[in-house]
Amino acid sequence: MEEHTFMPPPEAPVFEPTEEEFQDPLAFITKIRPYVEKTGICKIRPPPDWQPPFSVDVEKFRFTPRVQKLNELEATTRVKFNFLDAIAKFWELQGTNLKLPMVDKKNLDIFKLYKTVHEEGGYEFVTTKRKWPVVARKMGYLETKSVPACLRNHYEKLLFPYDVFQSGLMTGGDTPTETKRTTKPREEPDGRMRKSARQIRQEQVQLSIDYSKNSELKKLQFLAPGPKMTAVCESDDVKEEKMDTSTSDDYQPSKSIKIEPAAESKDVKDVKDVKDVVYTEDESKYQRRRPVRKASKKMLQDHNPELFQDDYLCHMCSSGDDGQCLLLCDGCDASFHTYCLIPPITTIPKGEWRCPKCIAQEYDKPVEIYGFEQSKKEYDLQSFGEMADKFKSDYFGLPPESVPYDVTEKEFWRLIGSADEEVSVEYGADLHTAVHGSGFPVNENVNNNIEEFYANSKWNLNNLPSLPNSVLSHVSGNISGMKVPWLYVGMCFSSFCWHTEDHWSYSINYLHWGEPKTWYGIPGDYAEQFEKVVQEIAPELFEAHPDLLHHLVTIVNPNVLMSKGVPVVRTNQEAGEFIVTFPRSYHAGFNQGYNLAEAVNFATADWLSMGHLCVSHYRRMNRTIVFSHEELVCKMAANPENLDLSLAKAIYDDMVSMVDHESKLQQELKDKGVVQTERKTFELLPDDERQCVVCNTTCFLSAVICRCADKKLSCIQCAPDHCSECGITNYVLRHRYNLEELHGMLAQLKRRADSFDNWASEVRRSLDASAQAKVSLATLRELVTTAEQSHFPECDLLEEVKAAVAEAERCGNVATQLVTKKHRTRTADVLSNSTISPSLNLEELQEFCSQLQRLPCVIDQAELVQDLMNRVESFQGEAQDILREAEPNAVKLKQLLDTAIAIDVDLPEIPKLKQELHQCRWLEKVEETLQDTRQVSLDILRALLDEATMLSRKQDDFCDLFRVNVIAMEDKSDCLKKRSSMVWSKQKDLALLKEVAAEGVLIHKQRSRERGVQWQKVADNMSVMGQDITTRAVRDHYKMISKKYRARMAREERATGEGGAELTEDKMLLEELIDVEDETDRQMENETEAKNQRIENERGQALEMRERAMERIGQTRKRMGGASESGGTVQKRRRSGEIME
Q1: What DSSP element (H or E) covers 697?
Q2: Element (H, E) at 776
Q3: How far apart, in whole angstroms, are the C-alpha atoms of residue 592 and residue 407?
Q4: Cys bridge to 753: 213, 303, 649, 868, which one at CB 3.0-4.6 A?
Q5: Is residue 411 assigned to a domain?
Q6: Taking a C-beta distance cutoff of 8 angstroms, is the pair 605, 650 a contact?
Q7: Cα dist. 356→158, 190, 316, 321, 365 in Å?
């Protein structure tokens, strides 16, 4: 494959799980399964802070790698090499060393010539139709006259004899290829038929001669037992037969006669001396037969004349004529005329020669599957890394880390497809962690908290196969490579060939460190198409080994597969990344350079059906299984309550088909006469003792045995082929469980598997119930609890019932606050100006009642809310009645407003009732004030006049009359001021200060009623000095004195930086009053600020409660989802895996 012709396949999907998704590897892999099943493999990048320490003891880590010859891995290249080996072996068995000829100044590709000729119809057809120029053109030669003839000559000389041999014309039987396809062992003929006719006759001669009676004949005996090859000379005297060492075509074999056996033995009367024939090294080199003793022909003929009738017979023409042209086989001593062979032989082979039958026997021997040799050197990580880096650096002429990945990839596939360029690399594969240690920390060797964290991590490959939801956790024992990880130490170009995992399970590979590993993957749905394409590309490899792809020794270029319609993806696995392969996904790849990875298998619930199919596939291929699938399923089915729901459903579906198939097969055996049965605990037997003798599967549910001496065991499917000696009625059916027990296990699994469906039906019935059949909130809570305890999977229905429970609980809390008044602080005065608003208005309360009716369940507070609604309706009726009255009673108004406060609902009648009550109270104040005008000040009247602005229009006339009276009193007051205004002096100022201090005016809040009353007393006390003075005049004069003093003190402090001169009595008194006033003002400010803050908080709470009360279920989910995102502690669930392109 040329470099520029390789086109990288599309990239495999890459996933980056969140911290939450990374907590459960099996759940995350199940989540992304719909995406990855379309590609077969995927890459997973852990969170950036997940970096396990490398825990292998580097100093003790030593291993012996495999040696890989890259050009022997590719399927079509290996077919070519196998063909060349077969041709070379064919000629070697006939005493000729194969040498490739030159055509057009380059070596002839005899494999391509062979394939091209056969594609055109074969040698005879091509020759008859004169298509050798077509063959030359297809092979890429220029169209010259000499090339087609040259190709024909070379084919006729080198390949046509092989064609004849393959056709079986010389052997008279099946072709070697057909023989090798036979799965049953060849039956050996009896001892006599295995011997040639000459050997049988020679044995008869040996038996007919009595060597003990003749000393000369004793010399003819051989020390070794068995038939020997004996030759005699034509002359009476024994002579040394010299061999002609010439290699020319006129070479003739030595004239010798073979002893023919006689029917009856006779006494030997005249036997002359016999000597050993001795050959030199050069002579024996070309000797066609072993050195033997030679006896006088006349001597033996006199003993038994019948021995020398047709000494050598050609196996083709059955004639012994023309002895100089007879070839004797060095394997079986059969003789053939050179011109009787097909095709005829014109020259005598120089080496050992085998007849066609002996050659066929050599080819009948089973061919060992291609495999990797072990290196002769043991490495540690340091020495292997130095070797790997030096190889890559020398090969590319660059530092190892500087070679681009795509350059390495294209060069790898170029070397894979090159038959002429041989590159060997080493790969430390399948290194057991039980021996060499795992790259992940393990609990037995942790030294700190970090190692302990990663030792317990679910992504630690030592833990992942045994997680609770992993099917392999139920497999007994630690299966190396499946449950116990293997390590892989790679170098540049070291590769792993196309394969699936054992039992078509999942696999996960983690690259601890080093340069990347390039992966190629094929979806599991295209596995059969991939196998078909590979068989079409290299059918010769599958003729002898139908299970070739199980041996991890064959690579096919991804571009070839893609051209045949097989989808392929690729990815580069960097250090710290995971590669996950899915069930029955063929995958292959190579290493970009020196690295170390670790891999293990695992299985989720969805694998069970695929595992069942795999066992059936292994049975057809006669492949030994790693563990019994039936045993695994039954072991899990024995404890269904401990199974995950999805796993229980998968086991049930798999076990149903398994039990149905078992029942059918047992019934067929009973119909055929098998009546003897016995129980057998198969799991207590070693696997080799419960292995089917026909298909090699491991038995568990049942097996068939017979009573013969072999005591063979076979699975129930292979029972018809179990034993040819015992009749089927003598079979004994062994079973682990009877059919009743199996159906009982199915019933338990059914209950567990259907628990989710039953729960889902109950949930749907509860959520869709009518108003009269609604369930309680407690029932919905029980459904949620059942789902959590049963480990039901997350689904929309579970989310819906959780949302319904949350909505009902929230409505219950709001209803409780409404009816118990725990959400706000009440005020004593119904006419206070508090800004706290009620929780709900009338429309919101009505909507809240409708929302309670729409809930899928009944809450206990619903009756209280309905009672509240009834109270609201009753209040509205009474309020409308009293508002219709001309002069409402203040007491009734007060009672209704108290009721409104207790209801805590913003009703439209409440402002009207407050207006009426305020009006009634104002009228009462006016009437009370006007009854005794002597104690009424003008300020009080003005305050009443200000309150009159809140009155309704029906009191406008009364307010106008009252306003006229107040104006008249103000005019009268002004006249009095003019007539008798207070003349202030220092003595009077001092008296005023003393009165203010004595009455404690300033300890009261400004503009409070209490301070107004005290100022009135001060004014009355000052009036005894002889002049009437009003409250406002007293207050205003004090403010003036205080203001002047404050200003003077400020000027003096700025001028001198400190206080003024010695204080007089009035100044001391004034300073004390100012301090009291300032302290009162500060307290008032603090109280005001606290009150405003409290009001603001209560307003916010009320608004929030109102908004929540009016929310729909969808709005609540949206708000809770937004809160989760902003809160940071609860992360929003991500939908199916987000693919990183």
Answers
A1: none
A2: strand 775-776
A3: 10
A4: 649
A5: yes
A6: yes
A7: 16, 21, 11, 21, 15
Contact assessment for residue 558 and residue 520, using Cβ atoms and an 8 Å cutoff: yes
The pLDDT tens digits for 153-206 are 888 888 888 888 777 666 655 545 443 433 333 333 333 333 444 444 445 445
Q: What is residue 392's predicted lDDT score, i.e. its pLDDT?
A: 95
Distance of alpha carbon 224 from its chain centroid, rounded?
68
Q: What does DSSP assign to residue 11?
A: B
Residue 916 lies in a domain: yes
CA 733 to chain centre: 41
3 state DSSP class of 150: helix
316 and 345 in contact (C-beta within 8 Å)?
no
Same domain, 566 and 419: yes
| pLDDT digit string, tens, across residues 906-959 | 777 777 877 777 777 777 777 776 666 656 666 666 666 666 665 654 455 555
Where would I find the H helices in 597-738?
Answer: 607-620, 629-637, 645-671
DSSP label of 158: I
Residues 1009 and 895 in one domain: no
Grouping H, G, I as helix, E, B as strand and the rest as coil, residue 44 is strand
- State how far the alpha carbon of 228 is from the alpha carbons of 189, 232, 331, 732, in Å: 21, 13, 13, 52
The rounded distance, in Å, linking the Cα atoms of 408 and 388 is 14
Q: Identify the burial level of 27 via C-beta atoms within 10 angstroms of its C-beta, where 0-12 means exposed, 13-18 middle and 19 or more buried.
A: middle
CATH number reported for the structural domain that contains residue 122 in this entry = 1.10.150.60
The CA distance from 83 to 539, in Å, is 12
703 in the Ramachandran plot: left (φ > 0), alpha (ψ -120 to 50) or beta? beta
| pLDDT band with cut points at 50, 70 and 90 for residue 368 | low
Q: What is the pTM of this model?
A: 0.59
CATH number at residue 57: 2.60.120.650
- 468 plus 384 within the same structural domain: yes
Examine the domain organization and report whether 672 and 553 are in the same domain: no
Q: Are residues 511 and 594 in the same domain?
A: yes
Those residues whose C-beta lies under 8 Å from the C-beta of residue 115, and which sit 6 or more positions away, are: none
Q: What domain count does the chain have?
A: 5
Same domain, 549 and 680: no
Say if residue 644 is in the same domain as residue 720: yes
Same domain, yes or no: 393 and 530: yes
Other C-beta atoms closer than 10 Å to the C-beta of 1063 total 12
Select the more confidently predicted residue: 1060 or 938.
938
**Of 976 and 185, which is predicted with more confidence?**
976
Among residues 753, 784, 805, the one where a domain terminates is 753
1077 sits in the region (left: phi over 0; alpha: psi -120 to 50; else beta) called: alpha
Contacts of 826 (CB under 8 A, 6+ apart): 901
Percent pLDDT > 90 in the chain is 23
Residue 780 lies in a domain: no
Question: Are the C-beta atoms of residues 768 and 664 closer than 8 Å to each other?
Answer: no
CB-based contacts of 439, cutoff 8 Å, min separation 6? 52, 54, 55, 56, 487, 510, 512, 596, 598
In a domain, 965, yes or no: no
Q: Are 480 and 540 in contact (CB under 8 A)?
A: no
Q: Is 655 exposed, middle or buried (0-12, 13-18, 19+ CB in 10 A)?
A: buried
Residue-range definition of the domain harbouring residue 907: 860-930
For the ranges 260-264, 491-495, 781-785, 1135-1139, the lowest mean pLDDT is seen at 260-264
Predicted confidence (pLDDT) at residue 255 exceeds the cutoff of 50: no
Residues 849, 815 contacting (CB under 8 angstroms) = no
Give the CATH number of the domain where residue 684 resides: 2.10.110.20
* Residue written as token pair 């130490």: 489
Q: Give the closest residue to 864 by CA, choosing from 876, 848, 879.
A: 848
pLDDT digits (tens, 9 = 90+) for 729-781: 888 899 999 989 998 888 888 888 788 778 888 888 888 877 778 888 888 88
Select from 900, 930, 960 the last residue of a domain: 930
Rounded to the nearest integer, the mean pLDDT of the chain is 76
